[in-house]
Amino acid sequence: MYQWLLFLHIAAVLSFMLAHGVQVTIIWKQRSEPDPERNLALFEVLPSSLQLRIMGGVVVLTGFLLVFSLSLWDQWWIWLSVLLLGVVWLLMFLFGGAYYNLIELAATRAIAARGSADEPAAMADYDKARLAWHPMAMTAVGFLGLGAILWLMIFKPS
Known about the structure:
Layout: H1 2-32, H2 36-41, H3 49-70, H4 76-112, H5 119-130, H6 134-155
């Protein structure tokens, strides 16, 4: 049973990371896209939030089943891993949601302002929004947080 749970957990993590790989690629492309219309078009290829939540739920569920099957709840590194995952999830939700909202609002305004006296200000706001700090923060949180969880899972410090 353990091997099947481990297999399902790793497969779920790989599926989740694959979907997030698409999302990371898009968010960095959005940051570098100078055309507001093309930037908005990038939203169409993003995995849906529902898909990501389901995949994330399968990761968490299989992880909890593994912990229960191995009776590891008395290990401090398990609790730290759960805490880190929660923090990473929350920060990704906050930073990602904020960035997507910034981009969408600024790009929509820049498109609507084309040919008007407001166009330079709208484009300056769009450039400021797309160059915001969010993708860098999300990348750092993802690498550091998930790297720490991976380290805890592999080395199981006591």
